[in-house]
Amino acid sequence: MTRTLPIGVQDFKEIREKNRLYVDKTDMISQILSEGTECYLFLRPRRFGKSLNLSMLDAFFNIKYPKDNKWFDGLKISECEECQEHKNAYPVIYFDFKDLGAESYESFIIKLKKKFSDLYSQYEYLITSTALDEIDIEYFTDVFKRTVDDWKLGYCLSNLSGMLYKHHNKKVIILLDEYDNPIHYVNDKNLQNDITDVIKDMLSRALKGNESLTFGVIMGIMQIGKNSIFSGLNNIKVNNMFSSKYGEIFGFTVDEVKAICEECGHPEKYSEAKGWYDGYRFGKAEVCNPWDILNYIDEGFKPQPYWARTSGNSIIDMLLECADEWVVEELMKLSQGKSIKKSIDSTITFEELNGIPRDIYSVMAMSGYLTVVPSEFGYEVRIPNGELY
């Protein structure tokens, strides 16, 4: 094998510069450009390539990188001539919400201020920009020094985009990763609501009516605030596991897994890899879990539950505690390799989770523990593959 495996590497630039194995997902760029939507919300389970795809978008669009970089040579996007004018042509704000889990509102705010301080430090050149006024500089300095008032945190993304627009005279692209991460590990409902309010305020100001914005891309697992956080964004596109577009952009297709096994010198292992890690369905695409496939190969083609070991979802734990006898019986059927017919709500939000037993199927599907296939009456639900039995 000539290319090394990118185990745990989510930086597109590093993967390409070090000639690590990369499965080409650059079609995502041309699709986004052709649609011209103001904001995209992509919802997929953990470790299906969301962060890497976001890093790929940053590498392509960010004006701070040299336009003549070689990262996209030989990839699908290099064949799109009309896309090249957008290459490294925009200021980009790339912000992730990981490591913001907190046991209190105060600790969440402290962590958030540090996150924004680190983000602003990437744009220190703005402090000396003649395009900015005193109010801009004062706000920038307060965020950078972590002395900004708590209520002003909601302006951090929108104000930064405005300053970048003034300086570069180019509208900004905002890329947000794991936006729902702070909510996943909070069991206290009041704390969950307080954190949700901060995130709503922040994203609403950055993505609704922001004249400095070209477009925004948000990655996550579940929605926060179906009727509030994105209200007013008339052309936001929510792309989840049921959406017809972008089905092959997240995860490895079976053909891609076959090609990887062949490149690694063991084409005969394809069937085993498929049996253990296939079974997910995004739109019409049949996909495998990338984390599993890469670790399976790295461990000498030894089938083990690699993805399942990284699990940590308090939301599912909470719902399981509320499961009634009927739900337990259905889960037993699933564990025996059987399928059941259920009604799945792909738009369920954190606010709507009230410990109702039926919610567990929707949440488990969105989190990657179940596969759902549309049928004549509702959905056919089953455990995806050998790893999760």
Can you characterise this structure?
The protein starts with 11 loop residues before the first helix and ends in a 7-residue tail after the last strand. Helices cover 38% and strands 12% of the residues. It has helices at residues 12-17, 27-35, 50-61, 105-121, 134-144, 156-168, 181-184, 189-207, 254-263, 270-277, 290-298, 314-321, 325-335, 359-367; strands spanning 39-43, 92-96, 172-177, 213-220, 236-239, 252-253, 280-282, 285-288, 340-342, 371-374, 379-382. It has 389 residues and is of the alpha/beta class. Helix 5 crosses helix 6, helix 6 (156-168) runs parallel beside helix 8 (189-207) and helix 12 (314-321) runs antiparallel to helix 14 (359-367). A hairpin with a 2-residue loop joins strand 7 (280-282) and strand 8. 36% of the residues are buried. The strands form 3 sheets. A 5-stranded parallel sheet has the order 2-3-4-1-5, with helices on both faces. The protein is globular, with a radius of gyration of 22 Å.
Beginning-to-end CA distance, first to last residue: 31 Å
Work out the number of β strands: 11
Order of helices and strands: HHEHEHHHEHHEEEHHEEHHHEHEE
Mean pLDDT: 90
How many helices does DSSP assign?
14
Write out the strand line-up for the largest beta sheet, numbering strands in chain order.
2-3-4-1-5
Largest sheet: 5 strands, parallel
Contiguous uncertain segments of 5+ residues: none
Please give the share of residues in helix: 25-40%
Helix/strand-derived category reads alpha/beta
| Cα shape | globular
In angstroms, what is the radius of gyration?
22 Å
